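Hi L.,

You mentioned the student needs an example of a multi-chain input paired with its predicted structure. This one should do, with 598 residues in total across all chains.
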Amino acid sequence: MKALRNIVDKLKPTFSKGGKLGFLHSTFDAFETFLFVPNTTTSKGAHIRDCNDIKRTMITVVIALIPCLLFGCYNTGLQVGLEGWNAFLYGLVRILPMIAVSYIVGLGIEFTVAQWRGHEVNEGFLVSGFLIPLVMPVSTPLWMVALGTAFAVIFGKEIFGGTGMNVFNPAVLARAFVFFAYTPQMSGEKVWYPSNSGMWSQVGEWFGGTDATTGATALEQLATTGGMQWSALDAFLGFIPGSFGETSTVAILIGAVILLVSGVASWKTMISVFVGGLAMAYTFNLCGAGALGAHEGFEPYMHLIVGGFAFGAVFMATDPVTSAQTSAGKYIVGFMTGAIAILIREINPAYPEGMMLSILFMNALTPLVDYFVVEVNIRRRKNRVKTVK
Amino acid sequence: MASKSLKNLTAPLSGNNPVIVQILGICSALAVTVQLKPAIVMGLSVMVVTAFSNLVMSILRKGVPSRIRIIVQLVVIAALVILVDQVLKAFVYDVSKQLSVYVGLIITNCIVMGRVEAFALQNKPWDSFLDGLGNGAGYGMILVIIAFFRELLGSGKLFGFEIIPAEWYINNGGVYANCGLMLFPPMALIIVGCIIWVHRSFKKDLQEK
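Structure written out for the whole complex:
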């Protein structure tokens, strides 16, 4: 550790203002604070003192995502007929290029913009870059991952002013971009199992030979046939096809516990998303789901364990930047996110999965909800003053 | 041509562009730019309408009482649009079909009325004509730029000819796929944003503080 500190200290003058490579000082700064806790403190304004900085917060989310990643690896191999360690390693080989592409493209843009504008490099992308591969189907071509990431970082984040200023969650935006731009590669029967063509069949051979399987996700089956072939337990444990990290509700719940115990995500938002989803699903079941074209005989709680509902609720709806800031706002926005997701699933056959659209839609409305919560509070307190007088 | 008159023609092309500086006529810029051909026809139609409505209103400007000037303007513009619509139907019927209601909606295009109100009513006919011509051309130019990117990236074609080789596509064993989002209007709005971004990074005096 000390040797590393010495190296950094030795390099520092070169990258400081006036040094030979002074123009790269924000890049250097990013790496230094990544390695060591900075000893600078904020001098102006009122603060809550806490050892938690953005980097620590972001790393906590990444740690909470690890169970989803590990299970995703295993499940990917499992879906093409591999078993045990072979399944896990095969999945790992499939996901690592996607993670690498997402980080290289995203961080590349972040560093370039930070250099260009003279900002510090922010850490927000550590989480987005990890989330993006986890919400894509495993067969997504790498250049689509790169394009989606670039779109999300430039148009979702940098033009609004960088980390902490974005209106929309970058990871959902990346997925939405790829979904609408390359619909055939992001939905349908062929994409949810790792493709077996070209060099991937060779890679599959190393792990004991993969099957060329295809099939729809649970939600797609639901939209077309009205039922699904997997049991509730399979769906809960995650042995179903789907985007890489979203299938296992168990792994997501482990992540949720990490997020809630460390206080990174708001339990108010998280719980209200689930409550909103359940409420909407029960409403549909009660008032004749079939008549509305919705899925008849599908237990409402099943909606929470298939598709990306749980993943979105735990990791995306709770994003500290784009979710509501006020306490009442968190309940309202969370409830609406869950309710709209199920509404889209039930009555719009074109979009079997509504979570992505619902999160983006509520991201756009969140500032409005917060505004009204604050206004109502101000009015209530004004009235109180009047009655006292 | 005096240099002052010439400026009326050239200013709307860049420094005072109706679409990317005055932010007028955005809705039709999103609607008709899926392909290059309709975009060019639309640009030309608007150019004709702005130029001649400016000319006619400039000639009439001293005879029209200001209380009823909007009605007179509408009559002139509507007559010109109907004329353009009939010409398009007669000579390029398929494009006219593609543009559908948007030719008729040139009447409501903010650029036309905006230029008549802001310029033609205070200036001489020749200057007004050039101003209308320039604004129509500035509008058409932006339309063509948007349509170029939308048609090339959205359907892999330009003027209906395949540009991207067929064997590049995923379905034929390649790796490429057309960006379906380009065919939707939201992406056109993002392209307009990018054009404004590039334009303002060159013209520093337009940057807002």
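You could point out the following to them. The radius of gyration of chain A is 23 Å. Chain A touches chain B at residues 141, 143-144, 155, 177, 180-185 (CB under 8 Å).

Best wishes,
N.
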